[in-house]
Structure formats: structure tokens, C-alpha cells
Design a protein that fits this description.
- The structure is a homodimer.
- Chain A has about 325 residues and is an alpha/beta fold.
- Chain A is about 50% helix and about 10% strand.
- Chain A has 13 helices and 9 strands.
- In chain A, the strands form 2 sheets. The first copy, chain A, has a 6-stranded parallel β-sheet, with helices on both faces.
- In chain A, strand 5 (about 115-120), helix 6 and strand 6 (about 140) form a beta-alpha-beta unit.
- In chain A, helix 1 (about 15-25) crosses helix 7.
- The longest helix of chain A has 28 residues, at about 195-225.
- The first copy, chain A, starts with 15 loop residues before the first helix and ends in a 5-residue tail after the last helix.
- At the A-B interface, helix 8, helix 9, helix 10, helix 11 and helix 12 of A face helix 8, helix 9, helix 10, helix 11 and helix 12 of B.
């Protein structure tokens, strides 16, 4: 891919309205299709409509369509794929599993000339799935914004403000199609970032998917500590006071470290399933580091441990 | 120890003023000594003085004494251990290393009849160090409150409000001494909790000390990913884009999971040093859980992974 645009950040600085006008011009007045009106799709609909753009949405259930209309998530909402007719850009705002195994009726209903982009949190498998269907018209994307909410009630204004919107174009991606999605990201105030799909997937495995496993393992260890013997990883010395004490004394440090590990189980499982190899590679790197820290504690090398923790304290701000 | 008081919670419900009056009565009007006016000692001084109790403080440096006076952290502040003369209760609000290896002049200056308590975050070694010196007059304690601040500027009102104040009495602990420290905790609005020192140390190893290592290992893994080959745990496939990408895309999930791992290196090292065996035991339990999750991912057992993550999502609220 063009290394000149790797990691570049553009419209984050450009006013949203300018990007919206450019998007409108590139679309030649054609409406924007949004498939799925959950947190991402619903938030997109609200922001795009606020910018004066027309949004036509496809949803799975009639009840969702009705509620989406009430909330004003789109100008038109239907369970009939024909609602996408005439759209110049279609955003597939669906869960990873439905993006990897799309409804044939949806694929058939995509306008022949429309640019199609997705919002999946893993990119290489989606590029492999959709590029053969749409060639250069497909732009693999990942707006990295989220809340704990999901479903038709979750969409909110300004969700993407200042957040990264990653695109992972391939050599086949049409530059015009990429520019259209860049304008979309700019119109909702996101920070545009282009990189290779493999780099994206490796990065999110480390910073987003691995923390789920770490927090989950800590929760399981704390939940089983002092409990009855049995689980191969259970605390062998049974202690009737410890389980209650752990729950009484856990404070903000434990709460923060386990937040994503105690999050949405379906989402965590889908991410692991779709990014399995990179997640296992990140886990290997993590375990290497953890073993290094363990050896310092085992050797009572307190100067070494303090040097490692000092380096961590210095490095962390680079990630915030 | 008396199992009837294990895990019990009293003055958290009792109004602070009632506890302060009880404390005043138990002290027979004698002042309270505070050794060290950092976050814990300074906050104690402010809250106790606000309750009308007299606080006499011992600090290490003249500059600290001057600033502490300006801030009103105590009624009298001195670098001379004699300032503790006449105190009926002395709170050792010092770092773990100085509690484990106390200044002989401090030990010599402790009033012969005074109840002495500490605020160290590891209890068994402190009980072993101080009980031979003071017998039943020493009450091992751990007010579990903190901020990112430290030093003479860190003390603040209401720091202990609703937070656990753990005491770990032994068979030798005088019940009257324990009641005095319970009144102290109540006077600053803390939730009183008694347990065995070994249980406290095992619990904090899991919920407080282990999360430091986990967050630090994740930070080190993310900081070295894609970097030049070299470190035994470095990413072998060098990638010039990945380091920048990891820092651009890291968001709240990564920030929360690594918060304590990127915290105060001196404190993290002291906790590991003073609670080494329990920390290594907690790390073993954690690694057992992490290996279980790894096996589910390696086996592509997505139903099993989702079941584990669902259990974590259900268990987490018990710790908050």
C-alpha cells in the first residue's frame, strides 16, 4: 500500500462541515445507506442527518425499524434491502459474524456502483471476504468508538468526535472510494488513519483484544481464590474468610484492571474468533513480559523490578 | 483470632461524630500522634482536627514541618520525636520500608502506654516486626484509601470516607487497643474490617499487588511490539508502522487495564518486596486461569470462551 498515507491523520483537523460538503459533492446528492442501526449505525445516522445528508437504513426486524424511525436515526428505515437503492455509499454497521457471513439478499441489494465500507473491528478477514465481491469499491474500515450500550437505543450524537477511524485499503482499493469514506469519517469528526489490514489486526489484538483475556483471567483468579478445592487452578488451601474479604477489599485498581475483562462476552468472543492468530501472538509477547517480571520477584531483584515499573510509568502516557 | 469479628463492619454506619466522641473519651483527652504527614498522615490530621481532636505530628525534614504547619495538618509538628510525648494513640503513617526498619529514635520516643497502629499495605511482616516491641499495644492496620498524590501537599479531607480500614489483630492484641483504633477509623468515616493478617496479605496480593504486574506486562508488550528485534520477548517480525499505530489506536480499554501497572514504581516495588510469597502465589493462580483461556482460543472453543467471559461479567459486580 502507499506508505505515504500510512498512519496519516487528515480531517480530524478539517471542520466537519467542510468534510460533509465534500461528501455531499462526491456523492452527487445520492443518499447514504446504513445497514444496521445499533451503536455505530445509529450514531452515524444521527450525525450524518445533522449535517444535512440523507440516510436510508436497512434493519433486520420490523420493531427495530419502527423504533429507529421514532428516534430519527435515518430518513428512511426498512427491513426490505431495496431501501438501499440509489445509495452512493453503503456503510455495513453489522456485528463481525454477520459481516463475515453476510445475508445473500443484502449482497444482492447493494447498488452496482456504490462504494461499500464496513465498521468491523478485525480487518484482514473482512477484506478477504468482501473484496472478491466488490473489488475496488469495498473499503475496509474501523471507527474506533464505543460505549457499553448496544441496540437501537444506543446510537448517540458525536460518538466519533476525535476518535480514530481506521481504513485498511489494499492494492486493489479504488482511490476515489477511499476518498469518499475519508470524507464520511471527517463529516462525523473522526480522526482518519490509514494502515495495512495486518498491522491494524496486530495492533488491536494487543491494545484491545488481549486486555479482555487479562482482565477475565484476573477476575477468575480472584473469584476462585480461597474457594473450595476442585478447579485445577483453584486455590488449594481452602479458606472460608478469603472469598468475602476479596470482594470487600477490591477497589478502583481492581475495577479498572478488570473492566474490559468483565465486558460484553459475545463481543469479546467474536473478536477472539476473528483475530485468533494475532491474539495468540500478542498473548505470547505478553506472557514473555510477565515471566520477566515474575523472575525479578522470584529473584528478589527489587532494583530490577523498580527499573521495569519506572519504564512502564514513562511509556504509558505515549498510549493515552 | 476471634472469628466473630472477622469481616465485620461497624462504624461505617455509625456517625463520625459519635465515633470521634468515643475516641476522645477512650483517650481521656490525650492527643493523637501521627508519624509522617504524607497522603495518609496528612489526611488523618486534617479530618481528626476537624473533629476537634488534638494532633501532634513527627516528620523527617524541617521543610516538611513548616509546610505541614501552614497547611494545618496537625496542631503541633516537629522533627523531634519528643513531640509524641503524652500521646495516647500514635499512628505510624510511614512507607512500608520505614515501618519494617524503623528509626530507633522513633521507637524510643513512643510513649510507654500509648496504643500504636500503622497504615502499611502488608500486615504479617509488620505484625512480626512490631508486636515484639509493643506486645498487645500494637494494632496492625491498613486504611485502604489512596490518590495518585504523595508528600506533604497530598493530604486531603474525607479521604477515608466509606473506604475500608482493615485491622489484623493477633491473639496477643489487647481488645482495648483494638477498640481505640476502631474509634479512630470511625472518626474519619472509614468502614471497619477485621481479619487475620495472612488473609489480608493474600487478598491484597490478588486484588491490589497482582494487577500492577499484569498492567506492567501489558505495557511492556505493547511498548516492544513491532519494535527492533533484541529483547527476548520482542516482536521478532520488525514492523516500522506498528509502534506508532499501537500508540495512535490505544483507547480507554488499554488505559484502564494498564492504570495501576503504570503507577508509582517505588510503591509497586515495595508491595512486591513485602508481600513476595503471596504475590507469587496469586500470580500462579492467575497464570492458571490465563492458560485456561488460552487453551479455549487455541482450540477455537468459542462456546467455552463465551461461557467463561459470561461468568466474568456476572462475577465482576461482586467486587465493586
Amino acid at each position: 500500500m502507499d506508505s505515504a498515507i500510512v498512519g496519516s491523520w487528515a480531517p480530524g483537523a478539517v471542520p466537519k462541515m467542510t468534510a460533509a460538503i465534500k461528501l455531499q459533492q462526491l456523492l452527487g446528492g445520492a443518499p447514504i445507506g446504513v445497514v444496521g442501526l445499533g451503536l455505530i449505525g445509529g450514531s452515524l445516522g444521527l450525525d450524518l442527518r445533522a449535517q444535512g445528508l440523507r440516510v436510508q437504513a436497512l434493519v433486520h426486524r420490523a420493531a427495530t425499524a419502527e423504533r429507529a424511525q421514532e428516534r430519527g436515526l435515518a430518513d428512511a428505515v426498512s427491513t426490505d434491502p431495496q431501501v438501499l437503492g440509489g445509495c452512493g455509499l453503503v456503510v455495513l454497521a453489522l456485528p463481525l459474524d454477520r459481516l463475515l457471513d453476510p445475508d445473500p439478499a443484502l449482497v444482492a441489494a447493494l447498488p452496482p456502483a456504490a462504494v461499500v465500507t464496513d465498521v468491523g473491528s478485525v480487518k484482514a478477514p473482512l477484506l478477504a471476504r468482501w473484496e472478491p465481491l466488490l473489488a475496488g469499491r469495498f473499503v475496509a474500515g474501523h471507527p474506533m468508538a464505543g460505549t457499553a450500550q448496544a441496540g437501537v437505543e444506543a446510537g448517540e450524537r458525536h460518538l466519533f468526535e476525535g476518535r480514530p477511524w481506521v481504513a485498511t485499503p489494499s492494492a486493489r482499493t479504488d482511490p476515489g472510494a477511499l476518498a469518499l469514506v475519508e470524507a464520511l469519517a471527517g463529516a462525523v469528526g473522526a480522526r482518519w488513519c490509514c494502515c495495512a489490514a495486518a498491522d491494524h489486526d496486530r495492533a488491536v489484538a494487543m491494545i484491545s483484544h488481549l486486555p479482555v483475556l487479562l482482565g477475565a483471567a484476573l477476575l477468575q483468579a480472584a473469584a476462585t481464590a480461597g474457594g473450595p478445592v476442585g478447579g485445577p487452578t483453584g486455590d488449594s488451601s481452602e479458606n472460608s474468610q478469603l472469598p468475602a474479604l476479596l470482594r470487600q477489599l477490591a477497589s478502583s485498581g481492581f475495577a479498572d484492571t478488570t473492566r474490559v475483562g468483565g465486558g460484553n462476552p459475545e463481543l469479546g468472543t467474536l473478536m477472539a474468533r476473528c483475530n485468533r492468530e494475532e491474539l495468540l501472538a500478542a498473548l505470547n509477547q505478553y506472557e514473555g513480559q510477565l515471566q520477566g517480571l515474575r523472575r525479578l520477584v522470584e529473584a528478589s531483584d527489587w532494583a530490577g523490578l523498580q527499573a521495569s515499573l519506572s519504564a512502564c510509568a514513562q511509556e504509558r502516557p505515549e498510549f493515552l
